[in-house]
Amino acid sequence: MAIEILQLLVQSADSWLFEGSLSGLSDREWMALRYLARANRFSRTPSALAGFLGTTRSAASQIAAVLQSKGLMVRKPVAEDKRSIALCLTGAGERFLEHDPMNALRDRLVALDVTDRSQLRDTLRRVLGGLDVAKRRHHADVCTGCVFLIERGEGKDRHFRCQFFRKAIAQKDTTLLCAYFEGRS
Question: 2-111 belongs to which CATH class?
Answer without folding.
Answer: mainly alpha
